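Q: Entry one of two.
A:
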Amino acid sequence: MLGARLSIILAKKHWAIMTYQSSLLRTLEERGYIHQMTDAEGLDALAAKQVVPGYIGFDATAPSLHIGSLVQIMMLRRLQQTGHKPIVLMGGGTTRIGDPTGRDESRKMLSDETIADNIKGIFSIFSRLLKFGDGPTDAVMVNNQDWLGQLGYIQLLQEVGTHFTVNRMLSFDSVRLRLEREQPMTFLEFNYMILQGYDFRHLNKERGVRLQMGGSDQWGNIVNGMELTRRMDGKEVFGLTTPLLTTADGGKMGKTAAGAVWLNEDMLPSYDFWQYWRNCDDRDVGKFLRLFTDLPLDEIKRLETLEGAAINDAKVVLANEVTRLCRGEDAAVAAEATAQATFAGGGLGEDLPALEVASEGVRLGAALTELGFTASNGEAKRKIGEGAVKLDDVAMTDPAFLIEVASGETRKLSLGKKKHAILKGA
């Protein structure tokens, strides 16, 4: 095991200075996807001479993934764009356990029906960004419940458990940090890394998978799977991780004050999705264009050099390109038109979030909370007190103000300069 770890360390140093032969690693490097990699020279040589099947795993804990997962999905897209085969692994089995990485408490148990429904919902984003089929570079989606569900416990202990030491498992950050914080970890969760390692071995054996990719927090799990595959089958496989993705202000990608930025339309309106990218920090524009769009690198370099108010043009390009990929052309066009109508023209775009107001009206503070502009009525009261709330472009000061909207009419409610909604009379 020491030898394997040493080779990984040496590979990481070598990777930092080498020039890649393969379009796969050149593309990943140029666009900023690479953080850690095992045997960069070996993977580069392999990708230069043959189709490399590679996979990333996603647990089905919700009906949609959020944009924190988009960098991984785009990695699979880059894999396919450079002539290789993406494998989307849905964790129908591992979702029943829960990845302890970065968590302080056990994950809520989900029913089989809920997991199946979540997988159906999640597939929609992959179907937009990847080409599925039976060809050599066509994507496929697999479910680890199909093989993990068939493993007997004694079989798992005998065949797989002997290749893992408790000493090493306790050293993993996902376990060590949880124990240091004195947060309980169930034996069920402790087994997650064993099952994830088994996934890599199974996919290598059954589908010829040579590469597992993932976020930097998955490095230990990926290396475990590589080592298990080598020990059980004598096969050489590779691992690659992306950097921890944060925004320029240090925030976690995919999270906002209003909640997660979901990829699916039924979880987050396309206008709100578009606005997330349009409102990104100036310092993030170039990075996001490289990671989340297919724009040529020369065009990205031009856009990220824009200064002052002109950087907003680059943000509109970013918002349009990402929305087009994830939601479709119509959604991108409608979102930009709504933004222009709302901000440039001072009107009401049809794609804005909407709240139907009953004949008896709605209190100002309650309307902000119902729209999701504020997390609570207390927060709404604070925002109103700060002068940040306007009704039909008029500043409001009373949280208890009763908003009335006649049937068939509309009014505009705004929080700050970037959040706007339509109030519709019932």
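Q: Entry two of two.
A:
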Amino acid sequence: MAKSVDSRSEYAIGVFDSGVGGLTVLNALRQALPEEHLVYLGDTARVPYGTKSALSVRRYAEQAVCALSSRQIKAIVVACNTASAMALEHLQACYPDLLVLGVIEPGADAACRVSQQGHIGVIATESTTNNQAYQKAILRLRPDARIRAQACSLFVALAEEGWHEGDLVEQIVARCLQPLLVADSQFPLDTLVLGCTHFPALRGAIAAVTGDDIQLVDSAQTTAEAVKCELEAKALQNKNQIRGSLTFLVTDGPERFARVATNFFNERIDPGSVELIDIQHYASEC
């Protein structure tokens, strides 16, 4: 018997991040699911989330999902590693009728698959590192893994300012990664998880510092694959053979968002098409 198609199949996928870093996830979704309508919300008024308390991040995430859910959304992708670490389970409980996915589980899965020895490093913001969400997710999949984590919040500023390569950037990256790379010479890393959606913008500089012996993993592509699988399993995939629409929402600075987005997104964003919204009045369903 053919699987019935959910009436929500033509609804959009909502994607939210604290700012522009989640556009790396949007890129991957655009490539894996070109027919899907995508609504991206960047909470640019309160970026970064990585230095905020768990209570604040959870409240911000609730408001972002509430704002997105008012726009005919069938799924939510939490494209912020910090929000995924601190608020994902809470959001899934709040919105049982929505497919809500984060970036940490797909990233952890990819790291476990590519790591030969199970010696895995994680770089992320301070909040994500302290929460140990990646460490816990990796150990659930690979209990024998040896994991080291390092907060590299400075990379966010470098990525947003377009400082992606060059000697100075590599020197900064090397200084930040040094504690992680030399921490345990008996168990040298073979895999490094880029545990913040900003970090893929610095992939070249990071690779220059880590060398060929360390595999770099970012969760954008694996998150897109996970979303595709979930949509197919729930008969929610849009079957239209036309390219889906893109909608951009921000909580502050549409012009700056469009300008900085060129560092993360493969398509030009017209500043005039970026909608400024106030999400602080949205009340959570919890």
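A: Comment on entry two: The two ends are 38 Å apart (CA to CA). The first strand starts at residue 12 and ends at 17.
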